[in-house]
Structure formats: C-alpha cells, structure tokens
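Please fill in the sequence for the structure shown.

STRUCTURE ENCODING:
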C-alpha cells in the first residue's frame, strides 16, 4: 500500500481535494494529477463574478497551481494532458499531451475519475455562431470578457434561468449590459417550487432584467446589424450582442463509458458509498457521478462543489485504507441575485411529487431576519416541507435580503441528522437584536409545523383555497381587505372574532387567512376552541400572492 501509485483525472474540485488528502494520508504514495485544461484547482464558482468584473484579477481564481502541488504536496501535476482511454486489464491509462499530441501510458494501482460535467449545447440551428458562450472554465470567462470589451457589448441574452443563468444576469447588468433571460419553464430556478421562485423573478425584473419564461429556444441567427438573435418556439425573437447558454450540464462519462464502467439510470457514473465504481481499482467523484439523495433515497445528479469536495476526500480515505462512507447528497445550494439570496436544502415539493412521495406537509412564513424593532429588519420568505406522519424534515427553501444562508444551513444540518420539525421548534440559536429573534425564523418554522402536526393549527393549502362549500374568512383589518383580498372572502378582523363569531357558519369548513399567517393562527385557536371547523393559510395572503394575483 505504501508504494501505491494513485492517478487522478481532473484536477479541480473533486480531483484536487482527493489528491491533497491522499498525500496527507500517505506520504510515500506516488500521486499523479492530470487535467486537460490549463489550470488545476481553480474557482469555477467565481467565474460569473470575474465576467462581471466584481473579481478583477484572473489570478484570484487560481486557488493552487502546479508548483504548489509539487512543492507542498509532492504531487506530480500535468495540465493540458488529457486521459483518452483506460486499460482496466493492465491498470493503465492512456494520456495525450495536448501541446505535442504525444500519447503515452501511465500505470495505476488506484485510479480516480473527477472529470466534472460539460455544459449542454443542444444541436440547434446557429448554435456555433460566434458570440454564443458557455461558462465552465477560466478560458471561457476570458473569452466572454474579451467579446464584451472588443464588441463594446450593450446587451446579452441568457438562455436558462437556473443558478448560473441568474448569476450571469446579475453580473452582466453590473457591467452595464441590458439582459434578457429566456427560460423554457414558467419559472426561474428550476429546483425551486414555483411560488418560491416568483419573488426571485420579480426581483430580477425590478433590476431591469427582461424575463421570457415558458418559452424554449428554437435556434440562433445573426441579424444585419451583427447582433445575435435567439429565436424561441413561440416565434419570439430576442436580440443581444452576446448569448450565454446556461441550460444545464451533463456528466462527463465518455472515458468511463468507453472503459465499460457501469453508468446509472440518470446517466452518471455509478459508485457505491465509498465512491468506488464497478471496477474495484477505479473511484469516481464529483459532477460525473450519481449520488443517493438522502431525502428521496433515489439516485441523483447534483453538480455542486460541496459534494465534489467531500467525495474527493472519501475516495482518498478509502484508497488509503480508511473505512469512510459518503452519506449522500441533499442539494444544499445558494445563489445571489442582485441584493437577495435564494437558498434551498433537501427536496422541493415538486421533487417529492416526482419521486412519488405523498406523505408530506408544508408551511410558509415571512419572518424578519432579526427583531423588527432593531433598524434594518428584512423579511425572509421561508417554505418548510416535512413528513406528515412523524414530522421528519424533508426540505426548505428561502428567499430574502439578509441571513438566508444561516437559516437554510441550520435546517440542512438538521436534515442530515434526521431531525424533525419538533427539533427546529426546540433549536437554541444565536440571538441579540441585530442578529435574530428570541424565536428565530427557524424556531418559528418548527413551531408552525409542530402546531399543525399536533392538531392545534390545521393548515389550508393556497392551491386548494375556494373549494366548494368552503367559507373563506379574511381576518385582516378592513383597510387591508379593501386593498385586495382573495375572491369570495368575507372580512372579520381578528379583534372582532370573539364578539362576532356567531356570524360564522358552524356547518362548513372555514379557511382563514391574514397577511402572513400569524393573525390567522390566533383566529384559528379562538374558533377551534369554540367548536368551529377551521384551517389557516400558512404564509397568509403574502404566500398566495406569490403565485396568484389578488
Ligand atoms: P470540475 O471542477 O468541473 O473539474 C473537472 C476537471 O476535469 C476539469 O478541469 C476538466 O478539464 C478535467 N477533465 C475532464 N475530462 C478530462 C480528461 N479526460 N482528462 C483530463 N482532464 C479532464 N457549485 C457550488 O456548489 N456553488 C457555486 O456557487 C457554484 N458556482 C458555479 C459557477 C460556475 C460558472 C460553474 C461552472 C460551476 C459552479 N458550481 C458551483 C459547480 C461546481 O463548480 C462543480 O460542482 C464542481 O467544480 C465539480 O467538481 P468536479 O471535480 O466534479 O469537476
């Protein structure tokens, strides 16, 4: 084991982590790290901000280089060297030196594949026109910057409204470009539920980004003024001086597939929980592999830096003789969109539905990120999804200006430990006026959900409001009601509920709502204790407005 030769293909998130940890665990192994690109260990996640000129120097994106790997870790790094084939029988890989075309072989005792993912480029008419870019590497970002500068670009069309598309929109606006986002789905941020994506879309529009949702791209053309035109399936045309394609990635599995390694049902390399492929001498990590979703239990592709880094460490542990296991992924992610953050962890409602899981309930809330009496409080829009039968946490999504990450991180950790809404109710979190509340938004989420599960606070679903025979009660003040209410609602302000409850029907289910859910909860408690059948709309009319117009 000590004289082991470890060869790693792909030298960024998963590969570089794996290489460095292999050295920390085994001082005498021979470690070779190859990458077909010009750099190893660079910050892909910083690329949109380099294009946007927020990060001004390219060198800041280089977290480590060949010399550091050699001098500090005694690792042989070869950039611009591409692995072109694996000879599993001989335990050798074939490598092409890109500068010269020379092909040579390297033997291995353990081989790690961390080749990442490739940007999807569908074979649409005009896809290869100059000025259409993807963003995966430093050279990509350099090309985009050069194009913007040399063409004095004033406008851009971004195809795809996911994380990278939205980050690029923000950064191009930051550079003074007018930006249109074209997205096939009717919402931005596909992993989010539509009602949580809506405020993000509105925020983009408020920052001048034109949104063309629910319309797929049909092709690209160049018009007479030299601009690129993105044609859509509905017949619309969006012109810009450049186009960014950000419609997702697919795992880089060519090498693995040609070598006969088993692929999974989602098209990624299949690995066990020690990151071992179907060949016991080959490991694979990062964007190229399928992982187990800890919430749905299903195989999934999660192209995120955190899992890639952790998987790289696990593979290194196992190669170096340790019994480490990867716990699975839960898709914890965050994206900055101008001055708000959008974050999620675990499963969304639509992911649960896709997985055929129906045993779940959800609550919405809009608490301030710190107490309202301290200046600068900003609301966080939070959705918590949990199992109906036992309160087990399944997922959360949040949007807001401040401290969104902290709340999602707490819930992410609770999910990893198999926590429940009752655990969130009891969580003891930091509090001083400028940082939170004695009841933190995370506690509130747990309390609302726990109250629902205990039967103290039956929940109405905004999607089913107005069902036949239901009585819809708005407990806000009359002026709020006049400004806009859900069609068919009757107004009875909370403070009058005790005195006037005789006006309410006892033979019908009453769905209550207020502004954000709190007054509705108080009204629910009063009426329940007086024998009425009531449900409250968690998140109130604010959540309802996120999806329906009032
Ligand atoms: P990569 O880091 O992509 O590395 C793969 C490397 O393998 C590449 O350098 C490639 O050249 C090399 N390679 C491939 N095939 C071969 C071969 N045959 N021979 C030699 N070398 C090969 N994740 C987050 O969690 N948060 C973020 O904010 C975030 N932002 C992102 C922004 C952008 C613009 C991009 C592109 C990605 C972002 N990600 C983010 C995703 C994150 O960067 C990836 O999930 C992570 O880098 C995956 O690591 P990996 O090791 O699997 O692949």
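FILLED IN BY: designer on duty
SEQUENCE:
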């Amino acid at each position: 084991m000590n004289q082991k030769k470890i060869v790693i293909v792909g030298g960024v998130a998963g590969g570089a982590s794996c290489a460095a940890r292999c050295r920390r665990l085994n001082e005498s192994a021979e470690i070779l790290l190859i990458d077909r690109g010009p750099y190893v260990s660079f910050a892909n996640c910083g690329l949109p901000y380099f294009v946007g000129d927020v990060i001004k120097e390219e060198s800041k994106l280089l977290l480590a280089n060949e010399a550091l790997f050699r001098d500090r870790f005694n690792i042989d790094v070869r950039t611009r060297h591409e692995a072109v084939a694996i000879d599993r029988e001989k335990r050798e890989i074939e490598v092409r030196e890109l500068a010269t075309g020379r092909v040579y072989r390297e033997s291995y005792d353990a081989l790690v594949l961390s080749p990442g993912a490739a940007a999807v480029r569908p074979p649409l008419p005009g896809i290869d026109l100059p000025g259409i870019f993807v963003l995966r590497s430093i050279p990509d970002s350099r090309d985009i910057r050069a194009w913007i500068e040399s063409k004095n670009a004033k406008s851009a069309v971004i195809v795809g409204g996911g994380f990278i598309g939205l980050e690029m929109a923000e950064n191009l606006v930051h550079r003074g470009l007018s930006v249109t986002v074209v997205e096939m789905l009717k919402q931005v941020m596909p992993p989010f539920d539509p009602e949580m994506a809506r405020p993000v879309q509105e925020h983009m529009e408020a920052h001048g980004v034109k949104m063309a949702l629910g319309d797929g791209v049909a092709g690209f053309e160049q018009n007479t003024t030299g601009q690129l035109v993105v044609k859509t399936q509905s017949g619309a045309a969006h012109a810009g001086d450049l186009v960014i394609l950000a419609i997702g990635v697919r795992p880089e599995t060519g090498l693995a597939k040609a070598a006969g390694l088993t692929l999974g049902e989602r098209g990624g390399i299949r690995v066990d929980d020690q990151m071992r492929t179907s060949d016991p001498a080959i490991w694979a990590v990062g964007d190229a592999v399928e992982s187990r979703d800890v919430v749905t239990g299903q195989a999934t592709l999660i192209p995120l830096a955190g899992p890639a880094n952790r998987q790289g460490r696990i593979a290194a542990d196992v190669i170096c003789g340790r019994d480490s296991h990867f716990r699975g992924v839960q898709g914890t992610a965050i994206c900055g969109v101008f001055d708000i953050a959008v974050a999620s962890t675990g499963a969304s409602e639509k992911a649960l539905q896709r997985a055929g899981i129906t045993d779940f309930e959800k609550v919405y809330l809009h608490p301030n990120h710190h107490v309202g009496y301290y200046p600068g409080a900003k609301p966080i829009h939070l959705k918590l999804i949990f199992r109906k039968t036992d309160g087990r946490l399944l997922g959360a999504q949040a949007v807001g200006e401040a401290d969104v990450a902290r709340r999602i991180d707490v819930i992410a950790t609770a999910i990893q430990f198999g926590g429940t809404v009752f655990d969130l109710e009891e969580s003891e979190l930091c509090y001083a006026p400028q940082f939170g509340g004695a009841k933190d938004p995370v506690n509130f989420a747990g309390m609302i959900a726990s109250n629902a599960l205990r039967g103290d606070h039956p929940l109405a679903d905004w999607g089913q409001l107005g069902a036949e025979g239901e009585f819809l009660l708005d407990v806000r003040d009359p002026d709020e009601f006049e400004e806009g209410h859900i069609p068919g609602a009757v107004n009875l302000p909370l403070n009058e509920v005790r005195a006037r409850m005789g006006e309410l029907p006892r033979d019908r289910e009453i769905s209550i709502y207020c502004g954000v859910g709190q007054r509705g909860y108080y009204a629910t408690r009063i009426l329940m204790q007086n024998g009425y059948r009531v449900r409250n709309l968690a998140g109130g009319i604010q959540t309802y407005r996120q999806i329906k117009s009032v």
